[in-house]
């Protein structure tokens, strides 16, 4: 899982470099957040001149995302099971959290002054449990630490939505309204 997160972060950086150099076909970026899951995403769109849209032109997009915060890479994370914390240590569970890692690709279609997108990909859901160590040995000085939960799975995701041209701001040229099925969330974003 840590390797996948590093790949995702590296992919986001590569997309940013490609966008900054106006790579031949991927030259629009949107930063978005999924609610209620706090999955932050970067989406790159293929060339799309919204001033002279051709209704026959189709493009593509790539969309990468991950949960923030990421507990499974922190100092308070231990690669152990909930069974270990409960049965071996006798610690009490105090919280749970789902981390998500996503990659999607798909097609775009301009219609009038907007662009619609639909695609799919893979989503990894990793469940984590937080425990309290009454002796405060684990988890730093507060005794709170995270371990693996019962779920660590990959599922197929479907995503879609629309990008609206923003004529009010010169910096933020686009507003995104979209969705993901896994995790079930509504996405909002701004782009340049």
**Helix-strand pattern:** HEEEEHEEEEE
Total number of β-strand segments? 9
Please tell me the total number of domains.
1
Regarding quaternary structure, what we see is single chain
Structural class: mainly beta
**Whole-Å distance between the termini?**
31 Å
What number is the mean pLDDT?
84
Q: What is the beta-strand fraction?
A: over 45%
| Rg, alpha carbons | 20 Å
For this structure, the CATH topology is Porin
Low-confidence runs: 20-24, 50-55
CATH class, named Mainly Beta
Summarize the structure in words.
With 192 residues, this protein is mainly beta. The protein has a single domain (2-191), classed as Porin. It is built from two helices and nine strands; from the N terminus they run αββββαβββββ. An eight-stranded antiparallel barrel has the order 1-2-3-5-6-7-8-9. The longest helix is centred in the first third of the chain and has 19 residues, at 2-20. The protein is elongated.
Please give a handful of descriptors for the protein shown.
192 residues, mainly beta, Porin, 8-stranded antiparallel β-barrel, 2 helices, 9 strands, 14% helix, 56% strand
Write a brief caption for the model.
With 192 residues, the protein is mainly beta. The protein has two helices and nine strands, in the order αββββαβββββ.
Topology:
Blueprint: H1 2-20, E1 26-35, E2 39-46, E3 59-67, E4 77-81, H2 82-88, E5 92-111, E6 114-132, E7 144-165, E8 174-180, E9 185-191
Parallel strand pairs: 4-7
Antiparallel strand pairs: 1-2, 1-9, 2-3, 3-5, 5-6, 6-7, 7-8, 8-9
């Amino acid at each position: 899982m840590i390797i996948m997160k590093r790949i995702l972060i590296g992919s986001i950086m590569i997309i940013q470099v490609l966008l900054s150099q106006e790579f031949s076909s991927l030259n629009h970026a949107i930063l978005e957040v999924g609610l209620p899951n706090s999955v932050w995403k970067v989406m790159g769109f293929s060339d799309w001149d919204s001033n002279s849209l051709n209704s026959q032109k189709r493009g593509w997009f790539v969309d990468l995302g991950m949960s923030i915060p990421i507990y499974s890479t922190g100092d308070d994370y231990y690669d152990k099971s909930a069974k270990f914390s409960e049965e071996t240590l006798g610690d009490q569970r105090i919280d749970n959290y789902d981390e998500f890692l996503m990659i999607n690709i798909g097609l775009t279609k301009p219609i009038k002054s907007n662009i619609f997108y639909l695609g799919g990909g893979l989503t990894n859901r990793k469940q984590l449990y937080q425990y309290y160590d009454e002796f405060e040995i684990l988890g730093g000085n507060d005794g709170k630490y995270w371990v693996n939960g019962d779920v660590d799975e990959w599922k197929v995701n479907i995503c879609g939505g629309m990008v609206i041209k923003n004529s009010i701001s010169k910096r933020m040229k686009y507003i995104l309204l979209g969705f993901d099925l896994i995790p079930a969330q509504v996405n909002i974003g701004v782009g340049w």
